[in-house]
Amino acid sequence: MTGAEEHPLPAEVLAAVREARRILVLTGAGMSAESGIATFRDAQTGLWEEFDPMRLATPEAWAEDPAFVWAWYAWRMHLVRAVEPNAGHRAIAELGRLREVSIATQNVDDLHERAGSSVAAHVHGSIFDLRCSDCGAPFVGEPELPEEPVERLDPPTCPECGGDVRPGVVWFGEMLPEDAVAATEAALEALEPGDVCLVVGTSGLVFPAAGYPAMARSEGATVIEVNPVETEISDMCHHVVRGSAAQVLPRIVAALG
Ligand code: APR
Prior knowledge:
Layout: H1 3-6, H2 11-19, E1 22-27, H3 30-33, H4 53-56, H5 59-64, H6 66-82, H7 87-98, E2 100-105, H8 111-115, E3 121-122, E4 125-132, E5 165-169, H9 178-189, E6 196-200, H10 212-218, E7 222-226, E8 239-241, H11 245-254
Parallel strand pairs: 1-2, 1-6, 2-3, 6-7, 7-8
Antiparallel strand pairs: 4-5
Helix pairs in contact: 7-11
This protein binds adenosine-5-diphosphoribose.
Adenosine-5-diphosphoribose binds next to α3.
């Protein structure tokens, strides 16, 4: 018996996607898990095992010890460069060729883009969009990335002002990028009854992104969650598909053909 037979996709899910004019795809860390990038809440292995991500991904942690925080992000950048988009990313790119699709992701990697999608919003920033933590100037150089995890690594120096260069991610307590918020809101407002919001691989714990599925629902869209386990948002979704992104999304897209 194949996985597909064990977990048939609900007919209502396929019908909703087939009939949708627009599809808003909201993705979180689970989207990239099968590419080999541990989800945020599972990412604390090895050197960083005993560090709470809530403490590493903060402006306070950066102010206290930039070399410690940079080492963690430099290793994450190395990991992202080393992996490939998975079948789920590729399915969403294919969906974009078949339907009007907008993607708003919480992920700071570039795997949707590398699969061929154009991403409307990186709501938590992009890890490779480096900028000076003092003057804000974009940093265009190629930072040196470690081949192995290291505990400390000096961040690059801003050529404009000599400040420390930081990753372009949104840390806890920081504002979301205005352009990403505007693009997400525009995509949400464009939804109409009969459209679909696919919510893939997010725990629904971090706001405001965790509120987007409910906003899609209030626009009249059919909200479908793809996640192997129950989450904070499962209850408000019209349909839940319990499976992984790389297993479920290609089957949804194949059913459109
Ligand atoms: N396919 C689909 N979903 C998966 C898979 C998979 N292969 N593997 C794991 N998941 C699900 C998990 O069940 C979980 O619900 O992905 C979700 C990952 O949750 P988090 O690690 O909390 O990721 P996310 O929701 O994106 O976190 C939000 O928190 O730390 C911040 O800025 C960070 O963007 C991140 C945000």
